[in-house]
Amino acid sequence: MDDNLRKKWMEAIHNDILSPLYFANIENFPYNENNPFRPNYTKVAELRMKDFSAFSYPKAELREYILHIFYDLLEPFHIEICKMQRFIYAVCENYQDNPFHNIFHAFSVLQMIHSIGEHVDKYQAYLDNRDRLALLISSYGHDLNHPGVTNAFMINSRHSLAIRYNDISVLENHHAATLVHFLELEGCDIFCNLPNEDQTYMRRLIIPTILATDMARHKIVMENFAQTMQNFNRENPTHRQHLLDMVLHSADVGNPTYKFDLATVWSLRIIQEFNKQVLQEEERGLPVSEFLRVGNEIKKIKQNQMGFIDAVIYPLWKLLNTHIPQTQEYVESIERNRKMWEELEKL
């Protein structure tokens, strides 16, 4: 990729979001028909870990890990290795360099869902392989081309995307549409060898699963999941969709489930992004999202984190754990982190 061209493109989207960056002529991939991909079992073991630190690796190595996550699904769905690598690369390069909503967040959500799946027999009690593939694809692209601001900012600034999506789940619609667009592009069309009905099925799963990450849908996602799991039927597509929604939504806000030092890094990054948005709102004369004004005082950071855990994270993951007991370790981490924030005097 031409770094100068990418820099110009990134500068161009500083105040707006343009069409995604995509290079169809990328061919220089490590794996092809003559050099088939074989998993590295050290990486396989690492991807099962609960506290995988994405920040420890450059993007190129994260893409290698991502290929490992999808490895067992390539053959069943006739996914060509070059197209998979191109798709992984294109999505990776279309995450912006935000403090929080970046490729490292996307990878972390994908890896968390994969890790949980490795401990629940790849979700086989709940999903078929098409559902699992859709869940993993959705998690990788769930924040694709995120601008680092909230839906409220997009609406209040009368951004073209807010107009396009009628102020409804603006960013989530944009992420889903961009991801589906990539899946249709020649060279990134990893589903091209599937029957048309299967390609349509994948799209019908991916779009609502990403839309479920809108925090405005937090309550309904939990309610649908709780009701569904009272009498879960794997043959019921609505039941499977509710589980997909819950798993991705939980992982999307799952950084408080990490060990405390890693969770804190993510917390400070989202606070940085929030503080930056408040400044932009003030500079542009937009309604100011005062609840995002956390600043850098430890007292206010503590209140912010404990409040978010109490109101959102703990009830969400507690509900998930009620029906997927293998997530108990995640709930215990949330409890420890809540206590650590309460006791923290300086940062």
UniProtKB/TrEMBL annotation:
Residues binding Zn(2+) 1, per UniProt: 105, 142-143, 252
GO molecular function: 3',5'-cyclic-nucleotide phosphodiesterase activity; metal ion binding
Chain residues that bind AMP: 101-105, 143, 252, 305
Biological processes per GO annotation: signal transduction
Annotated PROSITE patterns: PDEASE_I_1, PDEASE_I_2
Active site location: 101 (proton donor)
TM stretches of this protein: none
UniProt cross-references to PANTHER family, sorted A to Z: CYCLIC NUCLEOTIDE PHOSPHODIESTERASE (PTHR11347)
Keyword entries, A-Z: Hydrolase, Metal-binding
Binding site for Zn(2+) 2: 143
InterPro entries: PDEase, PDEase_catalytic_dom, PDEase_catalytic_dom_sf, PDEase_CS
Pfam families: PDEase_I
Name listed for the protein in its UniProt record: PDEase domain-containing protein
Domain PDEase residues, every copy: 1-347
